Amino acid sequence: MTRPLLEVRRLRKTFAPRRRGGSPVRAVTDVSFDLREGEVLGLVGESGSGKSTIGQCLVHLHRPDGGEILLDGENLATLPRGAFRRRRTAVQMIFQDPSSALNPRMSVGDALREALRLHSPHAGRDVIEERLERLLRLIGLQPEHASRYPHQLSGGQKQRIGIARAIAVEPRCLIADEAVSALDVSIQAQIITLLGDLQQSLGLTMLFISHDLGVVRYVADRVAVLYLGRLVEIGPARDIFAAPAHPYTQALLAAIPDPARPLDESAILDDPAGPDPRAAGGGCAFAPRCPHVMDLCRKDQPFLTQVAADHTCACVLRKIHPDRQGETV
Ligand SMILES: Nc1ncnc2c1ncn2[C@@H]1O[C@H](COP(=O)(O)OP(=O)(O)O)[C@@H](O)[C@H]1O
Ligand code: SF4
Ligand SMILES: [Mg+2]
Questions:
Q1: Atom nearest to 177 CA in ligand 1
Q2: CB of 76 within 8 A of CB of 24?
Q3: Residue 254 in 3-state DSSP?
């Protein structure tokens, strides 16, 4: 197998408490995954599971406390800021709120020209204008949109510009963090289709972050599932959707309405409050919510083990003979 484009190894990030007397938050604990050239890896998990922290570590918005982020063998996690700035076009991010990512006083054309010049500082004016027009058409807009300002655009159009800015610098990989979560459902579908088309036509490599497994289903080649900062399952999207191995993934999947599948109420999480970070001490952090919990689960942190080809899961159930499942060990 060829070397992955990006290798994340045992990434760790803890935040200081937000208020005095609070506890530090272990946002990301020993997360490892590869991003393979030309693939879309979906990163899913409930709010607070550490998805954005991982994405932000990849673009140097956070400095990890430990671990490696290898791009072409170079560890981005330890690069000094100056050195990273020279490589900043390699990994680009699309944000949830396109308005905050655009300068309200800059026209669409100027925002995109800025990005195009960052990529080709010595290109002449004509070349930049030609690339600008091509870029606008690529994201489904017209050349006349270049003279518009962000407040004259719809939410979907703003997100298209956010995507255009990110791809203008021809990044090696794209991080889309909840890129469609703030949009209406019909617009979400259009942006997902656009990302899929761009991925095909430009061969983009993408980390697609979303709390919604239903959205990830439409774009991802592989899916990684996070729970309280730890990776609990990773595998090919078709396997994850057909045969999710981890009880948490099963719960996320059960919550997606699907007329073709009977509702499995036993798998649905019945505590809308979400995960409890205090449970992340010893043992499996999902234990307080897991319908299959056993005494064993509270003892040691389950580690990722292979359950099928290219598919791993961190759950003791996967290490116990099926005949003994349900026993208190
Ligand atoms: N800058 C920060 N300071 C303190 N805690 C933070 C900060 N950013 C994120 N967190 C905490 O880290 C955890 C993971 O957050 P985040 O990565 O944003 O999760 P997600 O994107 O999956 O919703 C949460 O408990 C969140 O409150
Ligand atoms: S290790 Fe135990 S508590 Fe955790 S997901 Fe598996 S069965 Fe549930
Ligand atoms: Mg987030």
A1: 21
A2: no
A3: helix
Q: Residue 50 C-alpha to ligand 2 middle, in angstroms?
A: 20
Work out the number of other CB atoms within 10 angstroms of the CB of residue 105. Answer: 8
With a 6 Å cutoff on the Cβ, whether 18 touches ligand 1 is: yes
Q: Is 15 in the pocket of ligand 1 (CB under 6 A)?
A: yes
Residue 276 pLDDT exceeds 70: no
What CA–CA distance (Å, rounded) separates 55 from 50?
Answer: 9
Non-local CB neighbours of 197 within 8 Å, separated by 6+ positions: none
Rounded to 5 degrees, φ, ψ at 27 are -75, -35
Q: Say what the pLDDT of residue 191 is.
A: 94
pLDDT-derived band at 324 (thresholds 50, 70, 90) equals very low
- Residues 317-322 have a mean pLDDT of 66
CA dist., res. 194 & res. 189, Å (int): 9
* Ligand 1 atom closest to residue 226's alpha carbon, by position in its atom list: 22
Distance CA 89, CA 87 (A): 6
